[in-house]
Amino acid sequence: MASSVDDGKEKYRSFLYDEGEKNTTWRFGEPPTYDVVNKLFEEGKTKVWPPGSLEEMVQKLVKTWEMEIFHKARVEDFKIIDPSFTYSLNAKLYGKFELETSSTGRKALSLNEVAKLGGGYNPHLQTSLPEHLRIYNPAEESSDSSHRAFTTTFPRGFALEILQVYCGPPEIVFKFRHWGFMEGPFKGHAPTGEMIELFGIAVLEVNENKKIVKVEFFYDRGELLGKLVKGERLDTNDGEVASSCPILKNTG
User: Fold this and answer.
1) Which domains does the chain have, with CATH numbers?
2) How far apart are CA 195 and CA 197, in angstroms?
3) In a designed cystine with 135, which of 175, 209, 225, 252 is the match (CB 3.0 to 4.6 A)?
């Protein structure tokens, strides 16, 4: 497979093919390749940010963060994520909900807690729904199985673009768009071939060393998952098929 590396660097992400990564332990055995999803991004993005602009910087920062959190197996190999890092999903919205209903809200997670959830997509798809109502159940998914599920569903990747940056740094607030084409099955449901989009807002905080110490995401997970189960039910056990390429290495 042709590589998108240019002079040892990837177009949109840092700390991937650099000299400093020669001793990095990769979760799936080797560095991921982004050629396929980069093509999807370039063909489908709605914004073209000038080189050196704040928006372009934030876009590269977020893509690099996603790469490290998904693919680097050891905290000591993180270059852009601080060890004190915390992640939260709809934290403030759930905090309000907790006050009003006494239900358990979504709390911030440390790096160790993210790892215990299985990493990958699992922290992004946390839910308080009863287990029998969960389309996707993070409690039953490992890092491998979650990554396999989404790379099978989106064989061309799940691309990310920054739509707007409202403020920052050091506290950066931005609107994002994630999209991909459902060309593979998901959890027993046939592919629809449709473009699946997810929009949201995020807050990302960097410290004086330009490392990320906090990320907060605000979006409706049901907006994504509901679209993935529109296809008819399949007869196979889980509706997932093996890919002809190393799907755990290739990613969105």
Assistant:
1) 19-94+108-228 (3.10.450.50)
2) 6
3) 225
Q: How far is CA 148 from CA 53, 144, 154, 251, in A?
A: 34, 6, 10, 10
d(CA 225, CA 235): 20
Residue with structure tokens 């093996």? 242
pLDDT in tens, 43-102: 999 999 999 999 999 999 999 999 999 999 999 999 999 999 999 998 764 444 333 333
Nearest Cα to Cα of residue 138 among 109, 161, 96, 95: 109
The residue among 180, 144, 174 whose CA lies nearest residue 160 is: 180
> pLDDT per residue over 122-153, tens digit each?
999 988 888 888 889 998 998 889 989 999 99
What is the residue whose two structure tokens read 């590589």?
Answer: 3
83 closest CA partner among 72, 94, 91, 92? 72
How far apart, in whole angstroms, are the C-alpha atoms of residue 102 and residue 2? 53
229-249: pLDDT as tens digits = 999 999 765 444 444 333 445
**E strand or H helix that includes residue 217:** strand 212-218
